[in-house]
Amino acid sequence: MTRTPLRPLASVLTAREKGENPEAIARENLRRRHEAMRDRARNRAAGRLVVLALSFFCAFSVIGLRMGQLAASEAAEPRAATSGSDIVASRANIVDRNGRILATNLSTHSLYAQTPDMVDPYRAAEELAAIFPDLDAERLKRDFTGQRKFLWIKKKLSPEQMQAVHDIGEPGLMFGPREMRLYPNGQLAAHVLGGASFGREGVHSAEVVGVAGVEKAFDGWLRDPANNGAPLELSIDLTVQAAAREVLAGGMRLLNAKGASAVLMDVHTGEILAMVSLPDFDPNKRPRPLTMGNAGDSPLFNRAVQGVYELGSVFKIFAVAQAMDLGLVNPDTMIDAHAPMRWGKFKINEFRNKNYGTLSVTDVIVNSSNVGTAKIALAIGAERQKAFLGSLGLFEPTSLELVEAPTGKPLVPSKWSEISTITISYGHGLSSSPVHLAAAYASVLNGGTRVTPTLLKRTLPQDGPRVVSEEASKAARSMLRQVVQRGTASFGEVPGYAVGGKTGSADKPKPKGGYYKDKLISTFASVFPAHDPRYVLILTLDEPVETSGDKPRRTAGWTAVPVAAEMIRRTAPLLGLRPGPEPEQKAKIVQVSN
């Protein structure tokens, strides 16, 4: 900035020439300089006032807008600061094959305490103990008045409980939003669904993670936001599942059984329409695992998948089907079934020491002859028998979509000797689960192609490798039908549905070797309709006893078969099967000329 002198030389010389006082020039220039300085200061102050006014205006505008937003929004608890990745709380629904809800989410709240903010912790503890009987008032008092600044009280609250806590009026008691897993059908399909629990938790959200069943097997898929909330569709039919459980529970109580299981499976697609294991549990209140005793006694134990048992005579159809497929026998081939049969130091007897003499292959199955089956198995040989049973998946855990499936590994003899060949042919010496048996029966009876069981909804038949020929499969179905018509499963007849099946009554092994004489695993493996197979049903009862007669009866023909027949009678119409005559029972059409 150029500074103007107060007494410029030119102005002073001019003033002297005119006789004027040069000091007046300095005073005038000083006055002008002061006026210019005042003008600049005034303008600078005015600008600052404008900026300050704009600042206040913007600040109050932002505050006003935020207050408006808060007034229009729903009240919520403040969120505590957390570190790490965000908690993903959403989880997809699980539905049955018809879209009915099996598992879903329910919005609820958790209850926690910020102890520094509590006004009257002693009264709050007493009030909370009155609302929640499982809480200890004295312990709450110690926690509220101790060193802890944060305390979880309840992870899930009902609306009534939340209102009761709110009425306490304690500012240190706070609520956090939650999504909990809900199973609206209770115990129905409990072992299939498994259950869920909370994973990582914050005061404003919590992870819901699977702990068992399909909830855990598909945990990543159910929590994946990329699925856009699409539900997981299972093969289970909720209506069929309900009917199957009701019948099985009634049969279990009636026959005083320790446990029971049922597997209903489509022989072409491998879909499991119903899977029941009793005793069961409510996944909404999943019990704790047993820490002592036999794990198989826990209601969490899935007998259909995890339970591996010697299933007895239901295995006989495998030996006969393989022998027919190899061309060693046909349904009418005669077999020497004279009993007892001696093999080295071992003696093979029939049930109740019967002696059937010479039987056709069909009658070996109808009469459930141990000796006849053993003779057929010896003709097959150990190597071929082992390869065939392996092709049916009876040596490895099933690939079923349950986290428990790998634990259901069949028990196979370390050395497959000739005596193993004999005993395994009639279901002893090899232990497998009911699901293994269902898949094996479906594979042999559906026309002879391998089927893998699944709990996911499928629309197309499986195109598995061939295990037996169509002719052998058809002959095996005919034999199983005759077992119901005139054999050991006569109580299994359901008019209109042409049930075929095979009974199995296996003594339970003792923990230290040997077998119990009065404790059986009774099994009925059935197919219906036998002439055009659609479904396989495997039903097992653990230690059943039928007491209506003079003596207690424990074999499958008296226990498992009637229960399975009632289950088929109840579920077949639900599956869309109409009762009708068998092909050979259709009325002949005779043309009558006029």
- As residue ranges, the low-confidence spans are 80-85, 586-594
Compute the CA-based radius of gyration.
41 Å
CATH superfamily of the largest domain: DD-peptidase/beta-lactamase superfamily
Structural class category: alpha+beta
CATH class division of the largest domain: Alpha Beta
How many DSSP H or I helices? Answer: 17
> End-to-end distance, in Å?
135 Å
Shape: elongated
Percent range of helical residues: 25-40%
* Biggest beta sheet attributes: 5 strands, mixed
Total count of strands: 16
- Average pLDDT, rounded to a whole number, is 88
Please name the CATH architecture of the largest domain.
3-Layer(aba) Sandwich
Binned strand content: 15-25%
- Number of structural units classed as domains: 3
CATH topology title of the largest domain: Beta-lactamase
